[in-house]
Each structure stands twice: as C-alpha cells, then as structure tokens.
Design goal:
Structural class of chain A: mainly alpha
Number of strands of chain A: 0
Order of helices and strands of chain B: HHHHHHHHH
Shape of chain A: elongated
Number of helices of chain A: 3
CATH superfamily of the domain at 1-83 in chain B: NADH-ubiquinone/plastoquinone oxidoreductase chain 6, subunit NuoJ
CATH topology of the domain at 1-83 in chain B: Four Helix Bundle (Hemerythrin (Met), subunit A)
Distance between the termini of chain A: 55 Å
CATH topology of chain A: Helix Hairpins
Helix content of chain B: over 70%
Number of helices of chain B: 9
CATH architecture of the domain at 1-83 in chain B: Up-down Bundle
Oligomer: heterodimer
Strand content of chain B: under 5%
Strand content of chain A: under 5%
CATH class of the domain at 1-83 in chain B: Mainly Alpha
Largest sheet of chain B: none
C-alpha cells in the first residue's frame, strides 16, 4: 500500500506550480492551463484518499470533477474566443473594463 | 510498498513536476499545451499505480485527448505567436514563487504530516467502521427482520461490491455504482454538459445580425 503522504506531497507541489502559473503568466490560455493543473492536483489527492479509505467514492468524485472540468473548458475557451474578437489580445491585463 | 513501485512512482512524479514547470515557463502556448499533455499522461500512469485504471483511461481520453485538442485548436485558431509575457513574468517570478511556495508548504504540512505516519492499523479501522455501519443498518426499526443467513449474505455482497483499502477499483464496480447509487449525479452531469455546450455556442458565435445592422445604421 502506498503511503498517501507521498502522493499528497506530489499533489501539493503540482497545485503550487499551478498557482505560480496563474500568478506569473498574463496569457489567458496559459493561465487556463494552470487552472487545469490545479484541478488535476486536487484529483490526485482524491485518488490518494480514496485508496486509503477503500470504496469507490474518491474515484467517482474524480470522475465528476473531470466532467465539470470538461464543461468549464468548453465555456471558458468560448469566452476566450469572444474576448479575442473584441480586444484582439489574450492578455489578461487588457481586460480592465471594470476597473476605474 | 515494493521498490519497483517506489521507483515507478518517483520517476512519474519527477516527469509530472518537470512537465508542469516547463508548461508555466514556455514561451510558445503550443509548447505549454504539449507539456501539459505530458503532465496529464504522467498523472494518468500514477493513477494506474494507485489502483484507479478507469480514471487513468478517462484522464487520457478526456483530458489529454479532448480537452487539450480543444486548447490546441483555440491556440491555432487565434494564431497566437510567441507569448510576450514571459519576459516580464521574470520580474513577478520572485513574489509569485514565494506565494505559491508558501501555499505548497502549508498544503504539505497539512497533508503529509497527518498522513505519512503509521497507517498499519488503518484498514482494520475502516473494516470495523463498515461492519458497525452494516450492523446499524441491519438493526434499523421498521426493517424486515433478517435472518442471520441473509445478513451474512448481505454483508458478503457489500464487501464484494466495495473495494477494500489499498485495492484496485475495477471498471465494473464503477459502472454499477454510476448507475445505481450515483444515478442522479450522473444525469445532472449530462445536463451540465448540455448546458455548457449550448453556452459555449452562444458565447462564441459570430456577431449578432442585430448588432451589424445597428453598426450599418450608425455608419450611414
């Protein structure tokens, strides 16, 4: 049996890298990919705990979170295309219409 | 944990972390997407190691396949060249790395310290909890009085249907659970995908006829 600590450490590091990507990059597509990375890190933690406790629930939660991620990507990329049509840029610093 | 298992896990973890880091600091969005695919494939193999083969296949087919193809399609559709933001990302890197590092340390402290200790007694605890639960359910008021034989059969069936700690989950078990206990969330998920599909079409569709007519009026 795997020590869940090892998997959780990997999950935490991947999540930290995802946060770094969101904070560092201004290209909205790369920011989006970093968000996917964080979702994936959370899934990894689910699998680790599911294996620790036995039962199916951990893996089914991962399944549903993947469904939500797929839906989120479809809508999010639609928004990216719409924004690009308006601004001709995918730089998140350009999206400042709500700012005074 | 055998040595071979540990080596596989550590190699895959190193690949996943390196691919994630390269993804963040690649200049070209296409390179970022391909590194994310590598990261997702490495985590799919880790899922196999952790006894989740179904999730691993879904990860490769849905994440690395469908979602990343969608990403690449949008990158190429928008014809994005080299990202301009990597150079000025360097100035932000120290602050961002400090913040993210602090977060990762907190997560590590919360997770690893709690769960890396002696877990030898854990499966027995879980089994005892499940037995207590089954006994409680069997003794519910209003339930038909079950014969000891039936109870034993029920418990054996439950034990067969539920994977034990540390055991791999088969696709069959997931399928049965999806269409029995998780039938409602499953249907809601299909509805969610339908709504997302319609929403994406509405958001990304070409400009409205009305808007272009308005623009013509203004210009004429």
């Amino acid at each position: 049996m795997t020590p869940p600590g090892l998997t959780l450490a990997l999950s935490a590091l991947l999540f930290g890298l995802g946060v770094t990507g969101v904070l560092v990059r201004r290209n909205v597509l790369v920011v989006y990919m970093s968000i996917e990375l964080m979702l994936n890190a959370a899934n990894l933690a689910f699998i680790a705990f599911g294996r620790l406790h036995g039962g199916l629930d951990g893996q089914l939660f991962v399944f549903f979170s993947m469904v939500v991620a797929a839906a989120e990507v479809a809508v999010g990329l639609g928004i990216v295309v719409a924004v690009y049509k308006q601004l001709h840029s995918v730089d998140v610093d350009q999206l400042n219409l709500l700012k005074f | 944990m055998t040595t071979g298992f540990a080596i596989c896990f550590l190699v895959l973890a190193a690949v996943a972390l390196a691919a994630a880091a390269k993804m963040i600091f690649s200049h070209h969005p296409v390179h970022s997407a391909l590194y994310l695919v590598l990261n997702l494939c490495a985590s799919a193999l880790i899922y196999v190691l952790l006894g989740a083969p179904f999730i691993a296949i879904v990860q490769v087919a849905v994440y690395a396949g469908a979602i990343m193809v969608l990403f690449l399609f949008i990158i190429m559709y928008l014809n994005l060249g080299l990202a301009q933001d990597v150079a000025d990302a360097r100035s932000r890197r120290a602050t961002a790395l400090a913040t993210a590092g602090l977060l990762a340390v907190l997560l590590l402290a919360g997770g690893v310290v709690r769960w890396s200790g002696d877990l030898a007694g854990r499966p027995q605890q879980v089994a005892a909890g499940q037995q207590a639960l089954a006994a409680g359910q069997a003794g519910l008021p209003g339930a038909p009085a079950a014969t000891p034989d039936a109870q034993a059969a029920l418990q054996a069936a439950r034990a067969a249907a539920q994977p034990q700690p540390g055991q791999a989950v088969t696709v069959e078990q997931i399928g049965v659970a999806l269409f029995s206990r998780y039938a409602l969330p499953f249907e809601v998920a299909s509805l969610l995908i339908l709504v997302a599909m319609i929403g994406a079409l509405v958001i990304a569709r070409p400009q409205l006829q009305r808007e272009s007519a308005l623009r013509k009026e203004v210009s004429s």
